[in-house]
Write a structure and sequence with these properties.
Blueprint lengths: L12 H21 L9 H12 L9 E2 H11 L5 H12 L9 E4 L17 E4 L1 H7 L9 E3 L6 E3 L8 H5 L1 E4 L4 E4 L4 H13 L5 H7 L10 E3 L2 H9 L1 E7 L1 E6 L5 E7 L6 H13 L6 E6 L8 E5 L5 H11 L3 E7 L1 E4 L2 E4 L2 H42 L1 H10 L3 H12 L3 H8 L8 H26 L1 H19 L6 E3 L15 E7 L3 E6 L13 E2 L9 E8 L3 E6 L3 E6 L13 E2 L12 E7 L6 E6 L3 E6 L11 E2 L9 E7 L4 E6 L3 E6 L13 E2 L9 E7 L4 E6 L3 E6 L13 E2 L10 E7 L4 E6 L3 E6 L13 E2 L9 E7 L2 H14 L1
Parallel strand pairs: 8-17
Antiparallel strand pairs: 1-3, 2-3, 4-5, 6-7, 8-9, 9-14, 10-11, 11-13, 12-13, 15-16, 18-19, 18-21, 19-24, 20-39, 22-23, 22-25, 23-28, 26-27, 26-29, 27-32, 30-31, 30-33, 31-36, 34-35, 34-37, 35-40, 38-39, 38-41
Helix pairs in contact: 2-3, 3-4, 7-12, 7-17, 12-15, 12-16, 12-17, 13-14, 14-15, 16-17
């Protein structure tokens, strides 16, 4: 490289990057993202209002095309793209974005649903009455003016801001390294608070909160709790929870609706409706029959139809939990104060408005005083002239030109140059007696005004009185009732507090579809009946698993790959008895090729073990507490050998009997204490030695006084006292359990039952029967059993389960806990 010359210099790149980034950051903070604490406006907003004032677009003027307004703004004051300026104008005209719009728009200015405004060549606008209040006295030397970007005109540094815009309309923006989100408030409350601070400068923020209880958003809604509000008002930062306003409506038909008439600020009804529809489709929310957006020009209305039999309060809380019908807003009250970004509390914002208005009124009064004194000086000279009118005329007549006449008048009548020039410009009509009286009255009025202006400038209390009167007038003209209601704190929503504890039948098909419905949907029948349809299945699919559980139970879901997933019963979609169900892949994160094989309903994870059995006769016992917190994608429950699969999982307590049953009709019974506890990733030990071609199909954990119900593929089955199976050590070949003949087919599975139980049997074609166990007489081990369900040609049994009533289930768990 050439050596440095006078026009080049060496720089350190790191330092140059720091300086350049700091310059950029300060430019964004000062000139783009943060509002000025005095008028609450960003530069782009302020310049739009000034351009409209230049065009004389007051509240009573005709509207002008927004293209003209934006053109003047960008051409005269804000040399940036129209795409950045027009949205700022639109937002100041939207009643759902701005609590007190500063601009009155005509045409399509967008909607609360997020519809964009029409192009600026189609829309028109003018200043709203409140927007005009922001510009009042701008020509009274109330604020400083600086050259615009090309030094062709002057622009105000800040607006006089008679209306407390920052407090009433709020502001939001993202700068570099900081962001602001000042909420809007009610004008009446803010006016009263400012007056209170003027009257009592030492007032506390807690006392101010009795006047200003919280933000007041243009879209209404409910603010839940006061802690976030107090944090914001005392520290400048806080978080509030906003809820939509809802009401329950009952139609003549008895159908119930949930109607939302106000939504949290910044949310779109269309997006909320789309989110609800998505949650219903994914099965995360049940009980919604229909959802639609009925919003119109009269206001917001989102309607959710409640399914028959569903609790509308439960559904309402689910909607609050899973959608932006309940939304949290982080508030950060950051504004530019004397050119520096400051985090300010409520009182500091009020004081900043008061101090700005004090300065504006002082400057206005000083300007008015100077004008009044100048006019009084002129009028005094005219009155002198009128008292000596003949001499004045004679003196003027003798002068050869205007300059000589002015000089002679100044010398002869002791006048100033301005007074002499005013006399030379006097019209003949002012020589009449009436005009002379008017001048005398004007002079007296001017002297009185001068006295008042000087008194105001000498006494700050009078300035504060003017601010009070301005606020009373603003409140009277533009004040309106509060829109946002503040309610008490809400506890963190726990669905368990609202979900009814009831017995549910959970159905899973071979293709992986799941659903639940009340156990009461099935009436009890005698053995040998044809049953009823439990699920519509597509061709090739069939019901593979069926069990009962409480809505508040946890489901431990085991797969053939030895993994376990975690699901709440109430999260399983509730559907009609004949419905197909929801795909499990939408509820669980299953691996490629992973298939669900077992489900264990658990109320708590404190007591007992889980016993697991595989097809190849491996058994393992692990503490239930080890499965308390599975990961989102599941965790290992048992480590399987290649080609083996998990076929049975049962919950057990101390000293219970374990039975493994095989497809070829063998069974082995041993104590659970024969299996030592192992960790989750362990492989397990041998539970039964299988003959060639045989495999384990069922696992039972029960008591010696129970009976073992065995069901075969062709609908036959039997129950045998568990005591008839001799107690062995694990690892044996077992004894005969049932004859697997041509009539019976292969053994499908086993259950531990008693006379008070009922069982459900399901076929591959979706037929189900609920049978009382006492209707199946006990018989010996080596028998073929009796018909339990009548199957059509080609149909076969695929699943059976015991039906637990809720009260009985709780009693059983208590007894089991006592035994342990």
């Amino acid at each position: 490289m050439d050596a440095p010359t006078e026009r080049t210099r060496d720089i350190i790149l790191e330092e140059e990057m720091k300086d350049s980034y700091l310059t950029f950051a300060m430019s964004v903070i000062m000139s783009r993202a943060l509002p000025d604490v005095r008028d609450g406006l960003k530069p782009s907003q302020r310049r739009i209002l000034v351009a409209m004032n230049d065009l004389d677009l007051g509240p009573r003027s005709k509207t002008r095309k927004c293209a003209k307004i934006i053109g003047d703004t960008t051409g005269n004051y804000h040399p940036h793209g129209e795409a950045a300026v027009y949205p700022a104008l639109v937002r100041m005209a939207q009643p759902f974005s701005c609590r007190y719009p500063l601009i009155e728009g005509q045409g399509n200015f967008g909607s609360i649903d997020g519809d964009p405004p029409a192009a600026m060549r189609y829309t028109e606008a003018r200043l709203s009455p409140i927007g005009a209040e922001m510009l009042a006295d701008l020509n009274q030397n109330t604020v400083d003016f600086v050259p615009n970007y090309d030094d062709t005109r002057k622009e105000p540094v800040v607006l006089p801001g008679r209306f407390p815009n920052l407090l009433c309309n709020g502001s939001s923006g993202i700068a570099v390294g900081m962001a602001t989100n000042i909420p809007p408030h009610n004008l009446g409350e803010i006016a009263d608070a400012i007056i209170k601070v003027i009257d009592d400068p030492d007032i506390s923020i807690d006392e101010l909160m009795k006047i200003v209880p919280g933000p007041d958003f243009p879209t209404g809604g409910l603010i839940c709790g006061r802690k976030g509000i107090r944090d914001t008002y005392t520290t400048g930062r806080g978080t509030i929870i906003l809820r939509a306003r809802a009401q329950i409506e009952t139609l003549e038909s008895g159908k119930k609706l949930i109607a939302f008439t106000e939504v949290p600020y910044g949310n779109s009804p269309d997006r909320i409706v789309a989110r609800i529809a998505e949650l219903v489709k994914n099965g995360k929310i049940q009980g919604v029959a229909d959802v639609r957006n009925e919003s119109d020009r009269r206001g917001v209305r989102i309607v959710v139809e409640v399914k028959k039999g569903e609790d509308e309060n439960v559904l309402l809380n689910l909607l609050y939990k899973h959608t932006t019908l309940q939304d949290s807003q982080g508030l950060m009250m950051i504004a530019l104060d004397k050119g520096r970004p400051e985090t300010m509390n409520l009182k500091q914002l009020i004081l900043a408005y008061r101090d700005h208005r004090v300065q504006v009124i002082r400057r206005r009064t000083q300007h008015q005083l100077e004008q009044a004194e100048a006019r009084a000086h002129i009028v005094a000279g005219l009155l002198i002239a009128l008292r000596s009118i003949d001499e004045i005329i004679e003196t003027i007549k003798k002068a050869k030109d205007r300059d000589e006449a002015s000089a002679r008048l100044q010398k002869k009548f002791n006048l100033t140059e301005r007074q002499a020039d005013a006399i030379l410009q006097i019209r003949l009509q002012q020589l009449t007696g009436l005009e002379q009286d008017k001048l005398k009255k004007e002079h007296d009025d001017l002297l009185a005004q001068i006295k008042d202006y000087r008194a105001i400038l000498a006494d700050e209390a009078l300035v504060l009185d003017i601010i009070r009167e301005d606020l009373y007038e603003l409140k009277e003209k533009y004040g309106d009732p509060r829109r946002t209601e503040i309610i008490g704190d809400i506890a963190e929503f726990d669905i368990e507090d609202l979900v009814a504890d009831e017995a549910m039948t959970v159905v899973i098909t071979h293709e992986g579809y799941i659903k639940r419905h009340p156990v009461a949907a099935y009436r009890s029948q005698q053995r040998g009946g044809k049953g009823i349809t439990t699920a519509e299945t597509k061709e090739g699919d069939y019901v593979e698993h069926l069990f009962t559980a409480s809505t508040l139970d946890y489901l431990l879901i085991f797969t053939d790959q030895g993994r376990v997933h975690w699901l709440r019963v109430y999260d399983v979609p509730q559907m009609g008895r004949a419905a197909r169900g929801r795909a499990l892949v939408n509820l669980l994160e299953l691996k490629q090729g992973e298939k669900v094989t077992n489900f264990i309903p658990v109320r708590n994870f404190e007591d007992g073990y889980l016993i697991m059995a595989t097809e190849r006769g491996i058994i393992k016992k692990t503490l239930l507490s080890a499965f308390r917190r599975p990961l989102k994608g599941g965790i290992i429950a048992i480590r399987l050998e290649e080609g083996d699969r998990l076929v049975g999982v049962q919950h057990c307590v101390r000293n219970q009997n374990v039975v493994l049953a095989t497809r070829e009709g063998q069974a082995i019974r041993f104590l659970e204490t024969d299996v030592r506890p192992m960790g989750r990733p362990a492989r397990g030990v041998c539970g039964i030695r299988l003959r060639k071609g045989d495999r384990v199909t069922g696992l039972v954990v029960g008591r010696p006084e129970d009976t073992l119900l065995t069901v075969c593929e062709k609908g036959y089955g039997k129950r045998t006292p568990l005591g008839e199976y001799r107690l062995q050590r694990r690892g044996g070949t077992g004894v005969i359990n049932i004859r697997t003949t041509e009539r019976n087919g292969k053994a499908l599975g086993v259950l531990s039952v008693s006379d008070d139980d009922e069982v459900m049997i399901v076929s591959s074609r979706g037929m189900m029967i609920r049978v009382p166990v006492k209707g199946i007489r006990p018989m010996g081990r080596a028998t073929q059993g009796v018909r339990l369900i009548t199957l059509e040609e080609g149909d076969r049994v695929v699943s059976l389960t015991r039906v637990y009533e809720r009260d009985e289930r709780e009693t059983q768990e208590q007894n089991a806990g006592a035994k342990s």
